Structures are given as C-alpha cells and as structure tokens.
Amino acid sequence: MFSPLPHGSTAGSVCFDKSAITFFNGRVEKIVNNVLQPVELIRINGDCERTSERIIRETALTLRIDGNVYATAMIMAGMEREFAVGHLYAQGIISQASHIESLTVDGTTVHVTLSKRKTTGSKPVLSNLVVDRDQVFTCVKAILKSKVFAETEAVHSAGLFLEGEKPIAITEDLGRHHALDKAIGAALLEGIDLTRVLAASTGRQPTEMIHKCRNAGIPIIATKGVPTSLAVALAEQSGITIAGLVRGTRMTVYSHPERVR
User: Fold this and answer.
1) Does the domain formed by 58-114 have CATH 3.40.50.720?
2) Are 242 and 230 within 8 A, CB to CB?
3) Which sign, positive or negative, has the C-alpha torsion 192, 194, 195, 197?
4) Alpha carbon 102 to chain centroid distance?
5) How far is residue 85's CA from residue 192's CA, in Å, rounded to a whole number?
6) What are the residue ranges spanned by the domains of the chain?
7) Which of 42, 98, 149, 244 has the fewest beta carbons under 10 Å from its own?
8) pLDDT tens by residue, the chain, 261 residues
9) The Cα angle at residue 18 between residues 14 and 24, in degrees rounded to 5
C-alpha cells in the first residue's frame, strides 16, 4: 500500500487543509479496499457465530527479466510495479532505475527488459545524513498507523523519509522485506536520492534487510523491533545506522550512532 502524505506535510509537522484530508483519506480507503478480500467464517467465543470479515489478498507475483523467470514472490496484492523496481534495485540486479528499459504488469506477471545490469558488488554506504532523535521517533510512529494492519493484523510496514522528515512512501506487505522493496521502488520512480533518506520498518531486522539498505544506499534504518547479531555486524561494515527498540521516548542505536544526535 503506497501512502504518500499530501504535499507540504512532514512526519514531524502534519498540517492538512480539509480538501487534502478528504483526498488523502479517500485514496487510502480505495487502496485498502483493493488489497482486502471478504471471506465467510465461524467465530468462536463461547458461542459459535457465522459472520464475515476482510483478510489480506495474497498473490504470487512472477518477475520475468528479459524473457526469463527471475523469481516468484508471495506479496500483498498492489504496487506490483513499485515492488519490481525496488526488488531489482535492493537485490543488486540494477544500479539505477533508468537501467529498466521497459516494465509491464500483466496480471500476476511483471515483464522487465533491462538495458544494463549491475556488474560490481555493493560498496559501503556513503552519506553525511544526520537526524535528530525526535525525527527517528516520529518516522517509526508514522508507519504504525496502518488501516490495513488495524483491520487484519497481518502486514508489515516500511517508510522512507527524506532527510528524516518528509515522507516519500509508506508501504505495506506480508513481509517486512517486500514492504521495503515497495517503498524503495516508489522512491526510485520519484527520482529520490536514497542516500538522503531514513528508512523505518516494523519487526526484527535480519541481515536481508541490511543487505537491501546497503544495495540501495540507505544510511539509516529504524524499527520498533531489534536486529540480529549478523545484521549489526553487516551494518557496521556497511556504514549503516540501526536504531532499534524505538518505542515512546527510548531507542537503542546498534551501529554508527554518529548519525543520531
């Protein structure tokens, strides 16, 4: 789910006029309706009750590169284009979005033609981005206001915030890694310099998440969860700041604390 805030708003200072609120809420509600599917069920709480509720619409999305099957990913329906772009970038297949010559979504298949593939390995992240601790708290809080999670309790969220302030994309998926792929793809399609963003994510942060940040050039990732030991080691080597256990007014910075003041 792609939820950019209206122009002029920031994660730390959200000021909408009434028309912006109406448009934004209407857009979010439309997206929510598209990713949820009603099902009939029996609810047991002492008595048995036949009822219905909406659950996540999961889809198997196949990525084909230059005609060949690259991978099939189980994702939450929606943002297939952003997912494909972000996944190829975060996995180190391409080094910039312009290397995608064409991209078409055909049902549950994304067809990608590349003009060039990345031929070098990932390098440590070089960025002089420094953020205030209050910005870290605000960014993490911003991704926890998911309407889809409130209804289903079945998604992870990720967000990218330019200079630790301006929301670029807040996305959701069944897995935290695919949610981050979607956010990265949305940012790339907007031409955002990822070395100037703070990433916020839900849940624990294993090495796969840090690999994605390294490939994308993202210098800071913050989460209400915790990283793994290998994730911290990779972040130290890669020049990436991990802020974990971001809750209330407390956090733990596991690597490169110089980026949080």
Assistant:
1) no
2) no
3) positive
4) 23
5) 13
6) 58-114, 133-259
7) 42
8) 444 433 333 333 333 344 443 434 455 566 677 889 899 999 999 999 999 999 999 999 999 999 999 999 999 999 999 999 999 999 999 999 999 999 999 999 999 999 999 988 889 999 999 999 999 999 999 999 888 888 888 899 999 999 999 999 999 999 999 999 999 999 999 999 999 999 999 989 999 999 999 999 999 999 999 999 999 999 999 999 999 999 999 999 999 999 999
9) 65
The CA R_g of the chain, rounded to the nearest whole Å, is 19
CA gap 82, 97 in Å, rounded: 11
What dihedral do alpha carbons 238, 171, 102, 104 form, nearest 10°? 140
Write down the CATH superfamily of domain 133-259: Cytidine Deaminase, domain 2 (3.40.140.10)
